[in-house]
Amino acid sequence: MTIPVYQVDAFTSKPFAGNPAAVCPLDEWISDELMQKIAMENNLAETAFVVPYEDAFQIRWFTPTVEVDLCGHATLATAHVFFNHLSYNANPLRLYSKSGWLTVSKEIDGKLTLDFPADPAKPSDIPDGLFEALNVFPSLVFKGKFDYLVELKNEEEVRNLKPDFKALSVIPSRGIIVTALGTKHDFVSRGFFPQSGIDEDPVTGSAHCLLTTYWNQKTGKDYFFAQQASARSGEMVCRLRGDRVLMTGEAVTVLKGEIYC
Predict the structure, then answer these.
(1) Per the residue annotation, which of 28, 33, 41, 46 is the catalytic one?
(2) Does 28 qualify as catalytic in the annotation?
(3) Which domains does the chain have, with CATH numbers?
(4) pLDDT tens digits, one per residue of 100-139
(5) 10 Å Cβ neighbour count for 145?
């Protein structure tokens, strides 16, 4: 059996930046075990698998170690593949997932806009060992559906952070997001997910569902130009629209081929 695979760098306009994802369009589902093995072989933050579903498609996402309920950058990568490689003409692309219906619209300028559920930021108890694992002074901690969020003093502190990933891996959540107001961007962030087999994710679309609601609560704004300040880095425009977050970014294909299994 052969399975097509595309590797796409998401939330960037140039190759070898942003967040890489693999996209595997399928005619029908293969076994969960095989999808997990393919994701482990790809060894990227996420591999997305997509099959036809009703009059749209269904999508699932796997890290090298686990399946996740929501992933932004691999969804952006999937839409990029459909619009640019599979001659898909309907707009928006509709995808059913474990987090409900998602859409991706292709804009006039070619950029892609994700329509995802907002993730309200709520004050949280502080998990044992969190600040020690992050090597930061205590500060306010918030919790979304998947991740903890910690606001740091400034952008420099976010960029210079050197967490203890082994210690972070026992924090009971999908991951940890750190953030601060930016200088050239409205806010910056970094995302750590050792619990899911990813020490630091280059650009995390789903985390911006939480970040957008958080900074809306802090500033009253509903439009943000955001950067995830990883080594690869990536940018997006985030807009809060009621109970949805719209995230607009770019993507570029770096590889296509076939998986033999």
Answers:
(1) 46
(2) no
(3) 2-106+247-260 (3.10.310.10), 122-242 (3.10.310.10)
(4) 999 999 999 999 999 999 999 999 999 999 999 999 988 8
(5) 17
